[in-house]
Design goal:
The protein has helices at 9-31, 45-51, 81-88, 108-120, 159-167, 186-190, 205-213; strands spanning 2-6, 34-38, 62-66, 68-70, 98-100, 126-129, 152-156, 180-184, 194-199, 231-236. The protein is an alpha/beta fold. The radius of gyration is 17 Å and the shape is globular.
Length: 247
């Protein structure tokens, strides 16, 4: 894992976005296309803001998957990740080669099967992800399933995860936050050739510290990123504040 600590969320986003753009451009030059995973949520605002400005990317050669979606939530709801990706990303870049979004209003198990078949035919070149306050990857809350090889899963969301979504302003009450979601599995995320993980904010500091300094465990899902051969972790000073010997 390569660690980069920036002075602000804006600098984090600039650095992570530039790194992602370079990997996408290089992959297109090498393979003629790039398959990427895009995360959603507040942690990704600045990184994606930078990414959409990168003029060297030929978006017509990019295939996009996204990580997760609440079950039963309309794509018009403010918290919908489909709404997020459409408004914050897809409407701001030229048309992509293909886009595969998680349809949380359909039969969840069948949707997992549908997406699983597609992503197995599209080996991922770059995953852009974050880390939750409870250390989760995508919606794989602790204890995360490290063993399944299914690309997508139906998962239960723990209270810490649901409270994070509430506190970020996506919902008006905890009762409004769905208890289930479709999530890309940890196994599938780790199959990505490259991973860029963007984590700003002091509220993520404990999860970041545990990811980097404690034993790799499904109780700390993001800790498994240390086993990946090409993972780039971008933090701001606040998110890195609890790391021992913080540069």
């Amino acid at each position: 894992m390569e660690l980069s600590i920036q002075n602000s969320p804006e600098n984090l986003g600039f650095s992570a976005g530039r790194k992602a753009a370079g990997l996408i451009v290089e992959t297109i030059k090498t393979k003629g296309r790039a398959h990427i995973i895009l995360a959603t949520g507040a942690s990704q605002f600045e990184t994606q803001k930078q990414l959409i400005t990168e003029k060297e990317i030929d978006w017509s050669k990019v295939v996009l998957f996204h990580l997760d979606e609440y079950i039963g939530l309309s794509d018009t709801h403010p918290a919908s990740f489909r709404k997020y990706i459409k408004e914050r990303f897809l409407e701001k870049v030229p048309p992509l080669k293909a886009v595969y979004l998680v349809q949380g209003e359909s039969d969840a198990e069948k949707e997992c099967e549908r997406l699983g078949k597609i992503i197995r035919e599209h080996p991922i070149d770059l995953a852009m992800i974050g880390i939750g306050e409870n250390g989760h990857l995508a919606f794989n809350d602790p204890p995360a399933d490290f063993d399944t090889d299914k690309p997508f899963l139906v998962v239960n969301l723990d209270e810490a995860c649901r409270r994070q979504q509430l506190n970020e302003g996506w919902f008006t009450s905890l009762a409004d936050v769905p208890e289930k979601a479709i999530s890309m599995s940890v196994h599938q995320i780790l199959l990505s050739k490259h991973i860029i993980c963007s984590v700003p904010d002091r509220r993520k500091a404990a999860a970041v510290r545990d990811c980097l300094e404690k034993e790799i465990s499904n109780l700390r899902p993001a800790s498994i990123l240390r086993n990946h051969q090409s993972c780039f972790l971008f933090l701001d000073k606040q998110a890195a504040s609890l790391i021992e010997n913080n540069p």
